[in-house]
Amino acid sequence: MSALLIVGAGGFARETAQAVHDAGDLKLLGHLDDNAALHGTEVDGVPVLGGCDLVHDRPEARVVICVGNPGDYAARARLVRRLGLPAERYATVVHPTAAVSRTSSVGPGSVLLAHCALTAAVRVGAHVAVMPHVVLTHDDVVEDCATLASGARLGGGARLERGAYVGSGALVREGTTVGAWSLVGMGSTVLGDVPPGEVWAGSPARRLRAAAAPALDELTRTTGGPVA
């Protein structure tokens, strides 16, 4: 049984720890977090062993990075870059109640929580967070570092570009694209393409504003130039 370190000790990391316990195929060593106040404590009975860079002191352990929230959903990508681990160091955590079809694929470092479904030929990239009760239907593509909050639903052939965040209960119409590092608000209904680096919300969803600075910084890294 492979050992596992979870980078992060917040809500998503705690949920992932429970999924690891339920799946029973990885031995959870503990959490790593840069908040020094947590070092030497326990979170839900799991020890916080030290800072994130301790992954380099335990080369035998697999890793998942479980950080980020709607205020800074680029945090996971920054940590992936900072730690610089090879893809083979990353585990993929799938809750035993998740339904993943044989024609679907899930990349390294991604987490699929309880009762999510990948129906047919779904492609999920690396370091993707898929929260409970998310439904990804035929031919959906979810690129690296994207986040799908609880209960989000994507119609067939939809695409989430790198780092996109889809809020709880949001619906994305079939064949549409949510652009890189954009955020779709909770409960929204996306009927057309969302450009990169924007925040959209409502039913139907409309542009509210540009994304926050951390997301725009990641978008600039991707595009190689300033964001308009």
Q: How does this model look, in words?
A:
- The structure is a single chain.
- With 228 residues, the protein is α/β, with parallel strands linked by helices.
- The chain has helices spanning 11-23, 75-83, 213-223, and strands at residues 2-7, 26-32, 42-43, 46-50, 62-65, 93-94, 99-100, 105-106, 111-112, 117-118, 123-124, 129-130, 135-136, 141-142, 147-148, 153-154, 159-160, 165-166, 171-172, 177-178, 183-184, 189-190, 198-202, 205-210.
- The strands form 4 sheets. It has an 8-stranded mixed β-sheet with strand order 6-9-12-15-18-21-23-24, covered by helices on one side.
- Strand 3 (42-43) and strand 4 (46-50) form a beta hairpin.
- The radius of gyration is 17 Å and the shape is globular.
- The N and C termini lie far apart (48 Å).
- The mean pLDDT is 96.
What can be said about this structure in brief?
The model has no long low-confidence stretch (mean pLDDT 96).
Keywords:
228 residues, alpha/beta, globular
The average pLDDT value, as a whole number, equals 96
Order of helices and strands: EHEEEEHEEEEEEEEEEEEEEEEEEEH
Helical content class: 10-25%
Structural class: alpha/beta
**Strand arrangement, major sheet:** 6-9-12-15-18-21-23-24
Radius of gyration: 17 Å
Overall shape: it is globular
User: Helix segment count?
Assistant: 3
Secondary structure: number of strands: 24
Terminal-residue CA separation: 48 Å
Percent strand = 25-35%
